[in-house]
Design goal:
- By secondary structure, the chain is of the alpha+beta class.
- Helix content is 40%, strand content 14%.
- The chain folds into 2 domains: 56 residues, Wheat Germ Agglutinin (Isolectin 2), domain 1; 73 residues, no CATH class.
- The chain contains 6 helices and 6 strands, in the order ββββαααααββα.
Length: 168
């Protein structure tokens, strides 16, 4: 039994084609040489075409309004049940800190108060800390006055002091 390769248009024996159960005859549409070697690829797409296609997809930047619109659309799809992979339930409290509004609030704090720790004046490994708790005061989550810039060590000391006050 013979079959014609879709790439090189050569008629070859059925054994020259790889097995592919998705095809009606159970074999790939290209012969083994074309399937593995792909000799015609350099003639089909030039390096300029490959680079052009790569640049179209690489580093694509969306405006803030566009990102908010995409987020709103995804939330609406999840509410309507159109996307079974996304749910409206949040399994972990850290999911609240991964939303776009949180990132906007964080950048706003950095721009207003500078990128330096407010306690020790360090400039590395900075965190943005909620003065009033993130989960206890949901109305103040994204309020610019409810944030301060701290380095990681000062941030941990602050939280450890709070925990020791709660225990005692």
């Amino acid at each position: 039994m013979k079959k014609i390769c879709k790439r090189c248009n050569a008629e070859k024996g059925i054994k020259k084609f790889k097995v592919d159960k998705r095809q009606p005859d159970g074999r790939t549409i290209t012969c083994r040489e074309c399937y593995t070697g792909n000799k015609l690829e350099k003639f089909i797409r030039t390096p300029e075409q490959i680079e052009s296609q790569r640049n179209k997809l690489l580093g694509r930047k969306y405006t803030l309004d566009h990102r908010l619109a995409i987020s709103a659309g995804q939330k609406l799809a999840a509410l309507e049940g159109r996307n079974p992979l996304k749910t409206t339930k949040r399994p972990h409290k850290e999911a609240d800190r991964k939303c776009l509004n949180y990132e906007i609030w964080r950048q706003d704090i950095f721009s207003k108060k500078g990128k330096v720790c407010e306690i020790c004046l360090s400039e590395d490994r900075l965190h943005v800390h909620h003065i009033k708790g993130f989960h206890k005061f949901p109305e103040l989550r994204f309020d610019p006055e409810n944030g301060q810039v701290l380095c990681i060590s000062c941030h941990m000391k602050l939280h450890n002091r709070k925990q020791s006050n709660i225990i005692n």
